Amino acid sequence: MIQQAKTYDLVVIGGGNAALCAAITAAEHGSTVLILEGAPKPYRGGNSRHTRNFRCMHQEPLAVLTDRYTEEEYFEDLLKVTKGKTDEKLARVAIRGTEESYAWMEAHGVRFQPSLSGTLSLSRTNAFFMGGGKALVNAYYRTASKLGVEVMYEAQVTHLERCGNRIEAVEFTHQGRSHRLTPKAIIVASGGFQADLDWLASAWGPAAKNFLIRGTPYNKGAVLRDLLDQGAESVGDPTQCHAVAIDGRAPKFDGGIVTRLDCVPFSVVVNNAAQRFYDEGEDVWPKRYAIWGRLVAAQPEQVGYVIIDAKSLELFMPSVFPPIKADSIEELAEKLTLPPEALQNTIEEFNAACRPGQFHPTELDGLATDGISPAKTNWARPIDTPPYYGYSLRTGVTFTYLGLKVDETSQVQSAEGPIENLWAAGETMAGSILGQGYLAGFGMTIGTVFGRIAGKEAANYAKH
Fold this sequence. Notes:
Protein name: FAD-dependent tricarballylate dehydrogenase TcuA
Organism: Amphritea pacifica
Largest sheet: 6 strands, mixed
Radius of gyration: 23 Å
Domain FAD-dependent oxidoreductase 2 FAD-binding: 9-435
Cofactor: FAD
Number of helices: 11
Oligomer: single chain
Pfam families: FAD_binding_2
Structural class: alpha/beta
């Protein structure tokens, strides 16, 4: 039996950054707000718990951000990683919204810090959260509580009842009972479907069973599927996602950002036959780290291996699990279960192709190989200084890009036009902007800017 419960102006589905920005904004615009968070309280916040920075446009040095980062440069960076697969109007709304959002975030409890060693290439573009994503999430929950926002944890939304071009009711389960709410407006900010491994495999094929899920195990896309089944317009490709090459020893779910390995630009990367398969030095890591999840996914058994030497060990953020260490390439191969002779040949061929030049670890240095394929176009130094180190790599999926199509006001669209009391923010609509690829800190950009837009629009609708 579905029980009629208290009525709210606005129900926000999800409990991460986008949901919180929406809820806070709506409350400040006079709405009574309920957040339905599917996770238990200790795991609240979705993937936002694992974030660490926010990509921010600015015209001059801004607090912890150095120099300037213009709208046009930001947009060009996005075009590079998406290869043009983006909605320019929505992308520019997100980009323009970041500069003003910095002050808004600080005013609502978020604290920033300068870039850490190993992330200096981001000092101009990305503002880092003091205490990471967990601190940001906790700050927003404190702010929301002060504004009277109510939160229900372990509240699994099962159905949004669409009638014509409105959502009439929200149905969910909590503490073993079914409930039904009839709010004036609804904001969906409940992420992608990456934690539903069957859905992931239906898009990717059996290879997806070997993927690791970096983020929350609660993002199974139930609300997304429910709305798509009822005619909400979709955007994005189900095989596109934010996929990163992560430490192969990471847990199946919820390993978070600490499982990412940032050593690829200074390494040789091989598959399980000890063969290189892509340019490790194509661009600075924040613009290329997200392509490596898909590259590894295309390799046999969806696995890769990173090989570095002693002179590169201090050039990247430390890994959460220590690297495998050996005194020779052959010994390292055995420890990584790679064919020793094949790895030795690959490393020797690579070393012979390296050319003299100036090495600059934080910028494109043009230090490239000559005469091998694939080439390494930057940071190509011989792997010749023992001890040697290695990591296994697996595909770590953060969030999927299939989502709800929205307009510039974050309102959800259908074939019959906008669904008049439904908005979406964050990962559940990010496919509108991210057709493929990823830019470091851009998920937080989308969630923050469109969360605030959705909160304002939904509150105004509820009021009038």
